[in-house]
Amino acid sequence: MMEQLYKSKHKKISVLDIFLYIFFTIITFLCIYPFYYLIINTISANDLSANGDIIFLPRQMHLENYKEVFKIPGLGNAAFISFTRTVLGTVLSVLASGFLGFMFTQDKMAGRKFLYRFTILTMYFSAGLIPWYITMNNLNLTNNFLAYIIPGMVSPFNIILVKTYVESTPKSLQEAAEIDGASILTVFRRIMIPLCKPILATVAIFSAVGNWNSFQDTLILVTDDKLYTLQYILYKYINQASSLANLIKSNAGSIGSIIGTAATEQTATSVRMTVSVIVVLPIMLVYPVFQRFFIKGIMIGSVKG
User: Which positions are tagged coiled coil (predicted)?
Assistant: First the structure.
């Protein structure tokens, strides 16, 4: 027995094991390096960053890029708007997609197949940008915070995920609850929501990322600066700062010395990278919390059991 225990603790490493370790190490590096590259370039000398000289380690470190971004007028309010729309939009999207996905599995629902197929159809055919804007305008959703919430509540893709997941759960649970007198809402609230936590977490991640990154709806529907989202503010800042940086570069001899040293004055590259870090960082901090639900939800929700 001691010999077996010794062998189990000293298992031979095969050539395949070594290959897999090296392979997955490379894959991990390729996944992490782009974000690391962004960070080191935002805190390094901007002239070196613009020339592509920062590869692995930061050089001539400074925080001027972040200081300039945080000076943007209205940035705090825009961050609050983005945070609020992300939280509300995600919660309502999870509830709506979860309930609709559940209802599309109910044989007693009138017109279930037609409504489900019609929902799927909207994934492949869009009404177009102009009809969408006209509809939103007729609903008084221009310059309205609800324009960020209502259109994204129902996602055909999320409904498909939830429906497929619900179909993989034992029907006997719902039947037993209905025998005991439970209504559809009670079954959904007391049975399906606890059972569907993995797929609902997956839907929550998709919805949160979509709401957080969205700026096109602000660009088209909103002119009130009090309703600007963080992404739209940063989008405008990228355009303005990049134009200014290019102007400074083309007139470096006359006005470059007024703006500052070449190491700290902003370039189009430094602006884009700094904004990218600020936008991506919140998602990267939240994702690990939902990672185990996300992986399980994708695996189970993608294949009908």
Answer: none
Chain centre distance of CA 75: 20
Domain ranges of the chain: 63-305
For the full predicted model, state whether its pTM sits above 0.70.
yes
CB 263 within 8 A of CB 60: yes
* Structure confidence at residue 244 (pLDDT): 67
Q: Rounded CA gap, 218 and 225, in Å? A: 10
| CATH code reported for the domain at 63-305 | 1.10.3720.10
Ranked by mean pLDDT, the top range of 7-16, 55-64, 287-296 is 55-64
The Cα–Cα gap between 265 and 280 comes to 23
| Percent of the chain whose pLDDT exceeds 90 | 12
Task: State how far the Cα of 129 lies from the Cα of 246, in Å rounded to an integer.
Answer: 32
DSSP per residue over the chain, as a string?
Answer: -HHHHHHHHTPPPPHHHHHHHHHHHHHHHHHHHHHHHHHHHHSS-HHHHHTT--SSS--S---HHHHHHTTSTTHHHHHHHHHHHHHHHHHHHHHHHHHHHHHTT-TTSTTHHHHHHHHHHHHH----HHHHHHHHHHTT-TT-GGGGTSTTS--HHHHHHHHHHHHTS-HHHHHHHHHTT--HHHHIIIIIHHHTHHHHHHHHHHHHHHHHH--HHHHHH---GGG--HHHHHHHHHHHHHHHHHHHHHTHHHHHHHH--TTTS--HHHHHHHHHHHHHHHHHHHHHHHHHHHHHHHHHHTS--
Say which residues have a Cβ less than 8 Å from residue 250's Cβ, sequence separation at least 6.
none
